[in-house]
Write a structure and sequence with these properties.
109 residues; globular; alpha+beta; 20% strand
Length: 109
């Protein structure tokens, strides 16, 4: 199914890049397995939702034919983990900078 420009733009707003999803059902000759999670990488000009699946596949979704749902909690948790990791890295850098250099004078060996 091909959508008009307005519908494609609405899909892009509803499913922005980076949105995490879980597949409920796909009607395809070689479908992605139900329950597989993935990350939306965009919506193309005909309205297909482009997904990088966690199992390595990159098969697109057709919003009116395939069944899927977004995973809001996982995306929020990922953002919080990223922020926490950044803070921990900054603390580690500060601790490294505050330590006195450990070296041995070559004359005393």
């Amino acid at each position: 199914m091909v959508y008009n420009e307005k519908k494609v733009e609405l899909l892009r707003q509803r499913y922005p890049e980076g949105t995490r999803i879980c597949l409920d059902h796909m009607d395809d000759l070689c479908p992605v397995e139900s329950g597989t999670k993935g990350t939306i990488i965009g919506v193309d000009d005909i309205g297909s939702v482009m997904v990088k699946w966690d199992n390595g596949r990159t098969l697109n979704l057709l919003p009116d034919e395939d069944k899927f749902h977004t995973i809001k909690h996982e995306q929020t948790q990922s953002d919080e983990q990223t922020e926490e990791n950044t803070e921990n890295e900054e603390i580690a850098e500060i601790e490294e900078l505050s330590e006195e250099p450990k070296w041995i004078c070559p004359c005393r060996t």
